[in-house]
């Protein structure tokens, strides 16, 4: 699955953000719905997995968060400006323990846009976990809401080959795009090389979805480790 271009901003631990997002225990949700799946422990686990891989250690022990099956994405960013360092996920529902273990490493080492994450980068990382839910078929390419929905499109390229591409919900808002700009960018991301016309947009199939998301920084991870030792 192609990875979306996304850098997710770190959220404060509780309260309500300026755009109406509900923030609870570092977890964000939209539309006034309290998240029920994601938990900061998922981010700590991804850091454990990555540390074990970087230092060739045994995998971490089985985590304690829920092990339901959901589509998911893992995003690594680096530095204070949260530059994207890797983001890969799956639209196939996976048990969360296995899915996060797999994509914590896949997004860190196998995103073709970047070199693999190195040991010296580890202390500057932030990980974002996105659990995808509430999938719905769009009536047309405009049947989705900016900032609320992620979108998955299916289309035929100039050679008639079927292609897919996705953006998570935050991408369009962070880039300052409207719906048309988002669709056109996503077509190009998916490999469409021709001119994007209204007919091309009308011909694509769109599926919208929502995310439950949590962000954990290296500093928060280390605080968690210190607390484990108490």
Structure description:
- This protein is an alpha+beta fold and 230 residues long.
- The protein has two domains: 14-133 and 211-228, Glycoprotein, Type 4 Pilin, CATH 3.30.700.20; 135-209, Dna Ligase, domain 1.
- 27% of the residues lie in helices and 31% in strands.
- The chain has six helices and nine strands; from the N terminus they run E-E-E-H-E-E-H-E-E-E-H-H-H-E-H.
- A hairpin with a 5-residue loop joins strand 1 (14-16) and strand 2.
- Mean pLDDT is 86; it is low at 1-34.
Q: Please trace the helix and strand order, writing H or E for each element.
A: EEEHEEHEEEHHHEH
Query: Strand portion, in percent?
Result: 25-35%
**Helix content bin:** 25-40%
Gyration radius, rounded: 18 Å
CATH superfamily of the largest domain: Hypothetical protein ph0010, domain 1
Number of domains: 2
Mean pLDDT: 86
Protein name: AMMECR1 domain-containing protein
Organism: Aphidius gifuensis (Parasitoid wasp)
InterPro entries: AMMECR1, AMMECR1_dom_sf, AMMECR1_domain, AMMECR1_N
Domain AMMECR1: 31-225
